[in-house]
Specification:
CATH topology of the largest domain: Tetracycline Repressor, domain 2
CATH architecture of the largest domain: Orthogonal Bundle
Strand content: 5-15%
Largest sheet: 4 strands, antiparallel
CATH superfamily of the largest domain: Tetracycline Repressor, domain 2
Shape: flat
């Protein structure tokens, strides 16, 4: 067994046991771990992604991550930052799985390819989807993707403020749509929730809701009882890309 000393931090600063310096109490805690791995950002992100895939965004915590790594939450804060920072790094890892080509002459093809790559990457780790729509994003993977998107839309003919508008429309539509597609059942939903939802939806009055009752399925956003994790909305996404890219084309024609 190897004995490892760690400095533990609280909100008031570093702590050393039994001493007071500048108003901050300090102490050292002996931690004994067998064959402990060095705590690196890469390790934290890798283990964090595994944890997120297993427990979901709601139950993802720095305490749970620290337990997986055999350390303390305060140590993680010191080395990699807070929960949002770790999740942003995990998102960067997920986006790095995308195979995005260098912008070429066919801007429509590039936009379609990038949107498909993004959706596939998020589908592989669906628990990160809600985070993409919950907080402002930036990072080592986000910034190059944004620059490439701006370059492609610029090549399509968008300029200045309208280039910003077009980029917002494209990125916001794709990221928001995928987040909605992959939303999950309520946190407190039991095993019977889907069946109860389906049953209540099918009891709608055909006179009051003729189209909804005729077209009711697990593919109708707003009335689904299955997530896109289990029932991917592939045809709807294909139509979304047609409408989005045709709409951008119309703006520069």
């Amino acid at each position: 067994m190897n004995s490892v000393q760690e400095r533990v931090w609280d909100r008031n600063g570093p702590l050393d046991r039994g001493r007071t310096e500048g108003g901050a109490r300090r102490y050292l805690v002996e931690v004994t771990k067998a064959k402990r791995r060095p705590l690196t950002p890469e390790l934290v992100v890798g283990v964090g992604l595994q944890l997120l895939d297993e427990v979901g965004l709601t139950d993802f915590s720095m305490r749970a991550l620290a337990e997986r790594l055999g350390t303390y939450p305060a140590t993680l804060y010191w080395h990699v930052g807070d929960r949002s920072t770790v999740l942003a790094a995990i998102l960067t890892r997920v986006l790095s799985e995308m195979n995005v080509p260098v912008p070429g002459k066919d801007w429509r093809k590039w936009l379609r390819h990038m949107a498909t790559e993004y959706r596939e990457a998020i589908h592989r780790h669906p628990n990160i989807a809600a985070f993409t729509a919950a907080e402002l994003q930036r990072g080592a993977a986000v910034e190059p993707l944004m620059e490439s998107t701006l370059q492609v839309l610029h090549s399509a003919g968008f300029r200045d403020a309208r280039l910003v508008f077009a980029c917002n429309v494209y990125v916001g539509t794709i990221t928001g749509w995928v987040a909605i597609e992959l939303c999950s059942a309520p946190d407190d939903a039991g095993e019977e929730w889907a069946e109860e939802f389906a049953s209540s939806a099918q009891e709608l009055s055909p006179e009051a809701f003729p189209l909804m009752t005729r077209l009711m399925s697990e593919q109708l956003i707003g009335m689904r009882w299955r997530s896109g994790r289990d029932q991917p909305l592939d045809e709807s996404f294909a139509m979304l890309l047609d409408v989005l890219i045709d709409g951008l084309q119309a703006q520069v024609s």
